[in-house]
Amino acid sequence: MPCHPDWQKSHLTLEITIIVATEQFRLTYAHITVIIIHGYRLFFYPIQFQNGSLSQKRNAYMSSTLARPIEPMIPRKLFNSDHEAFRATARRFFEQEVMPNIERYEEQQHVDRDLWNKAGELGLLCATMPEEFGGSGVDRLYSMILIEEQGYAMDSSSGMSLHSDIVANYINNFGNQEQKLAWLPKMATGEVVGAIAMTEPGTGSDLQGVRTTAVLDGDDYIVNGSKIFITNGYLCDMAVVVVKTGNTEKGSNNLSLLIMDAKMPGFTKGKPLKKVGMKGQDTCELFFDNVRVPKSNLLGMEGMGFFMLMKELAWERLMVAIICQAGAEAAFAQTVKYVKERKAFGKTVSSFQNTRFKLAEMRSEIDMGRVYVDACMELQLTESLPIEAAAAAKYKLSEMFSKVVDECVQLHGGYGYMLEYPIARAYIDNRANRIYAGTNEIMKELISRTL
């Protein structure tokens, strides 16, 4: 099986790299100046704080560093050694390139543009795409691993899974040879950032109510309208846009997909939207004012947009379930670590019966979720995952994640409400999972139709 060279680095080298990066992150957060001489010797010069001592600040952060997930009670059997090598690369990427910069991403409301190029260099983007189009031709377990490692890092800023596993999939599944060659290799290297533009200000889950129009004019479509809540929108170089190309009574036959270059005249972007959570994720509005799009940019056939969108929905909803499962595991591991260190009334919080029972309840729910997600993934690998099963995974695991993180905040006490602690960020970030990729109410409707 093809394997990116950076996935095959030795475990010894990897551990050393992670330790150095982690220590450097802790020291940087603690506001210590670090000077590295010849790459080996470290000299530390503390800086004074206005409030609290250096040790207090550093210890506060050290107590909130991320713990790795606890091994499930039923061992997982999905992955082989190649998968685990890829996991090591993904983990290193999030620890070194993403986690140290979360605060800045949240302030600027998007990741740094060069983060995409760094991910591309490591082979983390579009790994499942065919090799002839810049990918590695691997299975979707690699996508699952990348999503999980993002969840384990408690990162809500990067939108790489949407880029690689949604946008790229539409082009690979329905694009012609010319379209694939034009976009997929650049998406794999990070030269091009992709977005999918479905939602409009007046249409949420109701795709048949799309109002953005594409009117044929010679060899071009003239596109007018707007989209909202677009992940990767602010930094995107290209977007697959859902447009209305017909006026038949059956609304699903009126939709088409256009590949739109962000540099096209009349294609403009709004400022990043101010959200309750996921503040570092690039989310914005897109506007189209008489944008002239070549007819050759039509993805698939005109009027087949709704069908194409439906084909990938099961996978997209399973992706949400995967990030929720990983997020719940990360929040739980972080909380177990915290209650074992935190003391109250002369003993650790973990020694109280209420804490032990709460942890037992959460672990049971989390492990049941893990078994279901992995079973869904096995079906997805053979393209036999039922739509209703994916809907159930998205609905139930996003609900489970919300419940788990709420309990975890409670066990953290007052510190759980402080944004310096990862559990507080998880609390505000997780809420959107019950909304996007189809609200949980829509998921229940889909499940109920099978009865």
Task: Write up this protein.
It is a single chain. The protein is of the alpha+beta class and 451 residues long. The chain has three domains: 5-189, Butyryl-Coa Dehydrogenase, subunit A, domain 1, CATH 1.10.540.10; 194-309, Butyryl-CoA Dehydrogenase, subunit A, domain 2 (Beta Barrel); 312-448, Up-down Bundle (Butyryl-CoA Dehydrogenase, subunit A, domain 3), CATH 1.20.140.10. It is built from 14 helices and twelve strands. It has helices spanning 11-29, 54-62, 81-98, 102-108, 114-121, 141-152, 160-174, 177-189, 305-311, 313-341, 353-381, 387-412, 422-429, 440-448; strands at 32-37, 41-46, 194-197, 213-217, 220-231, 238-244, 255-261, 267-269, 283-294, 298-299, 343-344, 347-348. The strands form four sheets. A four-stranded mixed sheet has the order 3-6-7-10, covered by helices on one side. It has a four-stranded antiparallel sheet with strand order 4-5-9-8, with no helix packed on it. The protein has a two-stranded antiparallel sheet with strand order 1-2. Helix 7 runs antiparallel to helix 8, helix 11 (353-381) runs antiparallel to helix 12 and helix 12 runs antiparallel to helix 13. The longest helix has 29 residues, at 313-341.
Q: How much is the average pLDDT?
A: 87
CATH architecture of the largest domain: Orthogonal Bundle
The CATH class of the largest domain, by name, is Mainly Alpha
Strand tally: 12
The main sheet orders its strands as: 3-6-7-10
Largest sheet: 4 strands, mixed
* Quaternary class: single chain
**Helix amount:** 40-55%
Estimated share of beta-strand residues:
15-25%
Name the shape in a single word: globular
Give the CATH superfamily of the largest domain. Answer: Acyl-CoA dehydrogenase/oxidase, N-terminal domain
- What structural class do helix, strand and pairing data support? alpha+beta
Q: So how many helices?
A: 14
Low-confidence stretches: 9-64
CATH topology name of the largest domain? Butyryl-Coa Dehydrogenase, subunit A, domain 1
